[in-house]
Amino acid sequence: MRWTRTLRLRLRSLLRSRRVEDELTEELQYHLQHLIDDHIAAGASPNDARYAALRDMGAMEQRKEECRDARGLRLIETIYGDVRYSLRQLRKYPVFTATAVLTIALGIGPNATIAAIISSVFRPLPVADADRLAVFATTISGNPRIWQRVAYPDLHDYRSSATPFADMAAWDLTSVSLTTDGSTDRLIATAVSGNYFSTLRLDPAAGRLILPSDGELGGTQPIAVLSHSYWSRRFGANSSVVGHEVRIDGRPFTVVGVAPEHFRGTFTLLSSEVYVPLELFESQDRLSNRDILAVRVIARLKPGVALDEARASIDTVATRLERDHAVTNNGRRVRVFWERQARPEPQNASQAPVLAALFLLLVGAVLLIACANVLGLFLAKGLGRGREMAIRRALGASRSDLIRLCVVEALVIAFLGACGGAIAGVALARSLASVAATPGFPLSLDPQFDWTTASYVGILMVVSTLVIGLLPALRASRVDPRSDLSEGKTATEGRRRQLIRKGLAATQIAGSVMLLVVCGLFIRSVQKLQSVDLGFDANRVLLASTDPGAVGYDAERARAFYESLDTAIESLPGIESAAASVFVPFGTGNSTPYIAAEGQPPPSSTTGLLADRHLVTGDYFKTIGTPLLRGRTFSNVDGKPSPRVAVVNEALAARLWPGEAPVGRRFRSNDDPEAPFEVIGVVPNAPYRRGEIGGPAVPRFFVSLDQFDGVARTLHVRSRTAAAATLASSVTEAVRRLDSAVPVYDVYTLERQINDSGSGFGAVRGAAAITGVLGVLALILALVGTYGVLSFTVRARTREIGIRMAFGLTPPRVFRMLLRESWTIGLFGVPMGLALSLAAGKVMEGFLFGVVAYDPVTLLTVVMLMAGISTLVGFLPARRAARTNPIETLRYE
Amino acid sequence: MSKPTDLVQGTLDLLLLRVLSLEPMHGWAIAQRIRQMSNEQLRVGQSALYPALHKLEQQGWIEAEWAASENNRRAKYYKLTAAGRKALKAETAQWERLSSAITLIVKPV
């Protein structure tokens, strides 16, 4: 109560200072008037009375000053004065100011970029009480992997037994083709259970959402809820869309409503555009099978319940399920994470903070290097200001006045730099988010200059102020008017001051060494990834996805469509071969059933072998360049009615039939154990996921697309010439000629899929690019800093060098002496940097591929680079010093 | 004219609060009232008066309001707040303790 009042009064004094000033004057005038009246009453003439009153009153201005003091305004006013003085000073040295502000902006900018991106990834969901939301993930004892999905029957049991939860909803992502008014969009869709929106506590922007009354799994009524952004984009935010009929993957759906604005689904990196009932997009078999981890879960904890309590109750149910369903649930546990900490997937709950911290550390290092540069500038300028400070002291400024002045000057620089850096940095984050479209994954991030980013930048601004302001301030406060005014300072500074400056340069070198090593490690990871033998030949292969189901084709028509398409594409000029598959190597889609050899117990998650399944056409292996080791591939005889056949990789064969010939053997998968597969061919192991590189080969088998009803396919087309991308238009055209309504999407080369996509090498390449930019920035800043320190040293030591030369020191020895100083800086900086980079490398080990944190190639390259650079940077100032004319420097006295 | 240093440290605040507890008044009137009430013994000069008033206002013990004065000019009237009333009680008690203690020592045996 009292402090609000005080604050109000102070604010009033500050903001309405003119008014307060006037009132003060008026109050004192009133008093004066009374005094005059008194004197007149006592018999004085008006003039004498006035004179006597003024004498009684004393110094009016001093009284006012005392009143201002009493109002606690002096500090604020003096700081205001300091700010004005600093601005005037900085205007007087425009080059100094511009350099300092720009340097700080360069340092703050990357921090703002990273902070904005991190904040956009971890922004709370736009729902009520978002901090009560949790996600589930499944673990199986003995397996380090974390699955982001849960078996639906398990979820059903958790929902009815775990009391700390208010509700639990099931959902999953799928990509769909939505057709309306004759045109088709490829969209990210969320298939949801009936209680999805009620668990999130969302209200519709128009119409209604999918409700628990539609059915536990969203019901079988074909209804759809549009996202606000798609509704605005496609339907002009017209509420007559409610009741409108659209086709989703060829099936008619009725739009019942629109999700609230800003809600983009529950998967951070993607923007979900349409919500449909889970029951219509996931087969009943999968949802009722306790052995299939079918759905993602978002749950809401009751108010006041601790996460540990929720975890304990889930564990209790899991133990019961283990006992009741030993075949499927043995060793299975469900882990509960806060939703915000488990982004984008629960697997990342432990990784994402590390990665965020690593990047903040790296950009923090850039800022420190930038600050060290500005500090160097200030110190150099401070030397010339010794006299100014001494005069101020002599004129009565206190030590604290001088310290305050220096800190305020630093604050002004840091503030201007932080503003510039924040604006540029957030703009950079926004443009990065919009260009970082990775193939097959419509990444959606919305970095903004939000509170989190602003406060982070604010903290950095204060830190920068302290770094660049404190040392000059302390130095200014030690000024002694007598010695500093008595003579022009031309002597070489003491060892300590030189040491500070060189220590600064060494720190900068250390910081840039760390950044360069981190960047080098990422570059080496990319090199390692790209030099790995993938077991197939990604060159010259173009991918193009189509989905005739989107426009109403059934399996039969789709098959006929693909047969004509195959003929059409193979007759195109420049094509070597063409095939199709459902999944793409290094793509996001996958299917991993449990399998068991015939004669073994039926496969389940506890008894089977987890294997990767791909659906392909006969020419697939030829097209992507994987040789067939034994047996044959699929042909026309492997139609729908004939026995199911499969091509397996060597790893699968070795696990199921160790030491035996696999061709002709049979195995079953857990999602359809009644129809076994006969092995007709064997292919070599080839990594299809990033995680497989450098690890053990994953058991994988291929089945014929003709024996399954997949209508959405990805065409693989191998070109005769090197430029597969040039086929894009002719392949698209071939599809259009057959049926112009069938959507064609994700047309790009397999090479791009592998190199640029998030599930390929895109993340590592992105990290290499970002750290590369930071490394070069840091290096440039450190170079400028070191060069500045050295040339300043030379200038400040001109007299000393002149004297030494007069006593017979030869120019070459002067040159060597100064070059040695540059090397000394490097000699201290580089080992410090190497120690830092080993620490950073340890942290980022999980993000590297085939490279250790102390990778000798990287370390050696950086050390050599630094040695070369410190020679180069030392060269110019050393040469200038060597050319010193002793007579001239001494005559200058 | 008595200088503020002639008063025991902090007593000026007590005097101001006490005088203002009678009725709201402006700076000049406060000075006059202190003189009258102390039988012309204490004179508070404006050099001490106004800074002290501004400080008390900042502390929230008194608040100010502009109003027409007896001679029909605009004057700044100070009045006690609830917090000021409490402070007056505390300060008075404090002063009584202090003055009786001093009396005990100074009084001839």
Provide structural commentary.
The complex is a heterodimer of chains A (893) and B (109). Chain A is built from 28 helices and 23 strands. In chain A, strands 14, 15, 16, 17, 18, 19, 20 and 21 form an eight-stranded mixed sheet that branches. A six-stranded mixed barrel of chain A has the order 3-4-9-6-8-7. In chain A, 52% of the residues lie in helices and 15% in strands. Chain A has four domains: 2-72, no CATH class; 130-342, no CATH class; 351-530 and 762-891, no CATH class; 541-756, no CATH class. The longest helix of chain A has 37 residues, at 399-435. In chain A, helix 18 (495-531) packs across helix 26 (811-843). The two termini of chain A are 66 Å apart. The radius of gyration of chain B is 15 Å and the shape is globular. A three-stranded antiparallel sheet of chain B has the order 1-3-2. Helices cover 55% and strands 15% of the residues of chain B. Chain B has one domain (4-104): Arc Repressor Mutant, subunit A. Residues 1-5 of chain B have low confidence and may be disordered. The interface between A and B is medium-sized, with 25 and 23 residues.
Helix/sheet category of chain B: alpha+beta
Mean pLDDT of chain A: 85
Number of helices of chain A: 28
**Approximately how much beta-strand content do the residues of chain B carry?**
5-15%
What's the SSE pattern of chain B?
HEHHEEH
Distance from first to last alpha carbon of chain A: 66 Å
Helix-and-strand structural type of chain A:
alpha+beta
Supply the number of structural domains of chain B: 1
The stretches of 5 or more residues of chain B where confidence is low (pLDDT under 50) are 1-5
Major sheet summary line of chain A: 8 strands, mixed
Using a beta-carbon cutoff below 8 angstroms, give the protein chain pair with the largest interface and the number of residues from each chain: A-B, 25 and 23 residues
Largest sheet of chain B: 3 strands, antiparallel
- Characterize the quaternary organization of these chains: heterodimer
Low-confidence stretches of chain A: none
